[in-house]
Q: What sequence folds into this?
């Protein structure tokens, strides 16, 4: 017999190794000895009150053995001689499109502009230390996409878009910790995710797929409303039948290419703002109601904040406890910041994007001449502004949080995790009013919600601009572009996902759509 129950465990009891069996026996009114095993299904922490509670959902096995293996099976088969499906981009959407193609009996041919996950490291070092951006290999481009070296958070609200559990199980199948199956806010970590990504690539190659790195697509050869071939950066053409476009939210050259060829695109609302960085102990003390060091059983505390300011949402985005701020530019002449955390989340700082909703129809009148690319051009202008105000390198403009809100230049800045360095700049006057004034009010509201959050010990760093794509590539009910019948826009770059898991699910859906009648 198996029974699923909810258990609430105090922080003190959490230290006991036998506590789940004891609590389960009490809850079911049975002897501890009759329980043959317990499987944790879900775990979260409730720290809203001073007494911290661990919430568990568990399966209690009575007279039965806990299953050793997952019920999910991944049926990969040799597709080396099968019909091909071309996939542009090898981030989460592209990877999972490729894996799903193999399951369905088709050969994925992946074209990735960036380098493999190991070689990317040298280009990340060049950004951090030499302030040089390789436009094809950086924090956004390369094997695994933007998520590989920017945290690996797996939380998603897209529960109706596909089988979320299947994506998680597949990550575990490829080497991720099975803890992600349990945690309410699962996270792999920047230091662990590259190996998982490499294992996915090896699965694709093992079963006959192809992955081509440093292979940027520069043109689509179109005839009779279909893509006949892809032109690559080495002037070679590659004949195609079905194309899944999974290039991510920062592949601006793809948006420009499609626009130039008069392929239908749509402007899409997005969000922009800054990164705020606090010492982690401040966030811990707020969230865990403690004055001293947090308990060893508690993870680095996170937060989620949202407030409406002048009819626009101001909210936290990609919060990274115990993490780093990283340079996420994809071209020289721009500064973009993002955040990441290692698996242990043991860095001294907590950072989060704090961003403002931008309504692409109501807020960007000065950019109407750019048509459907107006949001993209707005992004670029703010990134160039950050570049010049930071000193024309990857040094980022920054300000103490309180100085930003109160409208004064910071004479000094707090220590930071951002490796290229910070330069004091008047972000309160540099950011457009659309963003800056709402951020200032938003931070004040957040300070009231979290006592101690509004502090001179925090920096804000600009700009956080790549929250999502400002362009949508439309698709019909069959997930194909309405004008190019064999092009399947996919993932964040198409405007259909907002993170690793939702992009992976969309990749699977697009693979299933692409092989119909192939």
A:
């Amino acid at each position: 017999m198996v029974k699923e129950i909810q258990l609430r465990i105090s922080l003190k009891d959490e230290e006991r190794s036998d506590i789940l069996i004891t609590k389960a026996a009490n809850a079911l009114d049975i002897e501890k000895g009759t329980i043959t095993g317990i499987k944790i299904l879900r775990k979260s922490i409730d720290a809203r009150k001073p007494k911290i509670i661990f919430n568990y959902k568990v399966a209690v096995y009575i007279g039965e053995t806990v299953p050793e293996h997952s019920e999910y099976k991944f049926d990969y088969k040799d597709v080396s001689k099968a019909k091909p499906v071309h996939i542009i981009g090898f981030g989460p959407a592209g990877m999972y499109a490729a894996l799903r193609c193999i399951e369905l009996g088709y050969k994925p041919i992946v074209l990735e502009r960036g380098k493999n996950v190991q070689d990317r490291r040298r280009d990340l070092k060049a950004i951090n230390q030499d302030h040089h951006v390789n436009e094809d290999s950086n924090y956004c481009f390369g094997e695994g996409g933007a998520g590989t070296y920017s945290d690996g958070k797996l939380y998603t609200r897209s529960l109706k878009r596909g089988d979320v559990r299947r994506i998680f199980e597949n990550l575990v199948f490829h080497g991720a910790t099975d803890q992600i199956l349990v945690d309410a806010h699962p996270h792999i970590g920047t230091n662990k995710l590259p190996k998982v990504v490499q294992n996915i690539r090896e699965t694709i190659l093992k079963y006959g797929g192809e992955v081509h790195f440093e292979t940027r697509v520069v043109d689509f050869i179109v005839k009779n409303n279909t893509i006949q071939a892809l032109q690559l950066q080495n002037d070679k053409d590659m004949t195609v039948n079905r194309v899944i476009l999974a290039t991510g939210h920062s592949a601006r050259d793809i948006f420009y290419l499609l626009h130039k060829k008069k392929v239908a695109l749509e402007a899409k609302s997005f969000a922009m703002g800054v990164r705020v960085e606090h010492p982690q102990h401040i966030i811990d003390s707020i969230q865990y109601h403690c004055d001293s060091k947090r308990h060893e059983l508690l993870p680095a505390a996170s937060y989620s904040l949202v407030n409406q300011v002048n009819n626009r949402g101001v909210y936290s985005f990609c919060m990274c406890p115990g993490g780093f701020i990283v340079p996420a530019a994809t071209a020289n002449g721009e500064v973009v910041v993002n955040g990441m955390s290692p698996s242990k989340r043991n860095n001294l700082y907590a950072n989060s994007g704090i961003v403002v909703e931008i309504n692409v129809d109501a807020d960007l009148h000065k950019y109407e001449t750019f048509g459907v690319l107006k949001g993209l051009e707005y992004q670029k202008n703010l990134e160039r502004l950050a570049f010049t105000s930071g000193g024309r390198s990857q040094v980022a403009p920054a300000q103490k949080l309180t100085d930003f809100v109160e409208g004064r230049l910071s004479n000094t800045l707090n220590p930071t995790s951002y490796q290229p360095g910070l330069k004091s700049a008047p972000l309160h006057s540099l950011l457009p009013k659309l963003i800056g004034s709402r951020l200032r009010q938003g931070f004040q509201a957040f300070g009231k919600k979290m006592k101690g959050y509004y502090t001179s010990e925090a920096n804000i760093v600009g700009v956080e601009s790549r929250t999502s794509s400002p362009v949508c590539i439309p698709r019909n009910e069959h997930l194909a572009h309405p004008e190019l019948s064999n092009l399947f826009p996919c993932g964040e770059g198409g405007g259909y996902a907002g993170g690793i898991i939702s992009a992976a699910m969309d990749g699977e859906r697009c693979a299933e759509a692409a092989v119909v009648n192939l």
